């Protein structure tokens, strides 16, 4: 059996792509330039939504035909060619929003250019001279334009490199400057930050590793060996962040893109790095995770949500076409059926072979996977989509102390789940964004340890577009310094907490697990004698349980308080006594706070 773990073969992937593409057609305009999926418009309006619907499904169509060497029984290239002709015609009622009219068009233009490159013999080469001229005119405003200094820099690089490849206008200085800027996002062990902040999320894989490979192909140059080694190192971490049920890590913005999280594994396969059987196992696990749980839905559509619809998961600009960036996760279909990634026998994920503990240095993560329940957990001491010393309210998808493949952060309200907070006189919880990271490391026993500290502060997110991360708001109120040290082994974390300076009431929040799923517990040590369980709704469960413990009054400054946090199926809680941690498996560690 070629797929003993996921059960998915290339035929399953092709069937999913075809279903997505055919299900989109009823929502297309007469000439197919706009695909307007049902649902309320996004914050950028219906014209941008319709362009997203075209460009993002076009990715799936391009991968599908490229991997078949031009075989196209669904007539995808002809269908999308009609849309390109109308969308780039400035006089057409179906014309696209231009790059110099709205910034989001810069994003979608990159997808269009990318697929025109991948399918050149079967699409671009068959367009009329007039339509080619229209396409060049439509893409040309990228030249010399301003792009945000994040993953967007690759959109300019890709568009201008495509223009160069077809004899259009371009500015080599734009490409060179963009490549230099992108190199500045490089961090330890093959990771990329999405800009200058501590911004670590799925964009590292589905954008910052994806575009360099495609750019080198467009430019007709071999991939940089340094890039390939970085990709291989990143993938070694990435396969450890997939749960046995195929769930990717639930962390970071744009989660409505769902199985786009499979993208980097296909990038590795296309680049020839990594084990093909393991890469396909990770990718197939991710896409099947969603396909088996309602994404796409019964009508073959991708909604704004996780498994089913859940509008709160999206940013305020997201529209009904936005989720189709998930098509990037179908990138493997651009590889032919005889490619090793399709012919190799699947290999098990790391979490399927045994328990593991892993330090991921760039984002400051302590990663623990347990075979018994298939869950991967991340304890976070390095990521907040901000920078040390900033004074912002927490973004739930970045600043929590823990994320996993089996839990979903609470998306509204003050920090509760996976938090250490100081409660003010009104019971409001403090925030930690802007913390200072300590070292993350493995102890000689294999137990993982890490730390961070911050000034407790209270306040609200500021106005402006919600891009999924913290925004400056009103002036923050400040409280004591908070220091947290984590020791992680298996399904348990022992969390050490102390305040410096003024006193305050401490609360430690645990994992937000849907009722009936993985067990979530918080066991408070001396002084953390109050406890309870909050109930909230998340995309994983209308009744999601969040246990917590707290001091009954103000915590004593300088005193270390301890709590043990469980996600999964653990035995007796770890103990802390005489400067030692006693773990359920019999391991003894020195308390890592000295």
In brief:
With 594 residues, this protein is of the alpha+beta class. It has 14 helices and 18 strands. Strand 17 and strand 18 (588-590) form a beta hairpin.
* Total number of strands: 18
Question: What's the shape?
Answer: globular
Number of helices: 14
User: How large, in whole angstroms, is the Cα Rg?
Assistant: 24 Å
Strand content is 15-25%
Give your account of this protein's structure.
By secondary structure, this protein is α+β, with helices and mostly antiparallel strands. Helices cover 27% and strands 19% of the residues. Strands 6-7-8-9-15-12 form a 6-stranded antiparallel β-sheet, with no helix packed on it. It is globular and about 80 Å long. The relative contact order is 0.10. The model has no long low-confidence stretch (mean pLDDT 97).
Task: Please give the structural blueprint.
Layout: H1 10-24, H2 46-67, H3 76-87, H4 104-118, H5 129-139, H6 153-165, H7 172-183, H8 203-206, H9 210-219, H10 225-238, H11 263-271, H12 276-291, H13 340-343, H14 350-353, E1 356-360, E2 365-370, E3 375-380, E4 402-404, E5 419-423, E6 436-442, E7 448-458, E8 477-489, E9 492-500, E10 505-509, E11 513-514, E12 519-524, E13 530-538, E14 541-550, E15 561-568, E16 575-577, E17 580-582, E18 588-590
Antiparallel strand pairs: 1-2, 2-3, 3-4, 5-10, 6-7, 7-8, 8-9, 9-15, 10-14, 11-14, 12-15, 13-14, 16-17, 17-18
Helix pairs in contact: 1-2, 2-3, 2-4, 4-6, 6-7, 6-9, 10-11, 11-12
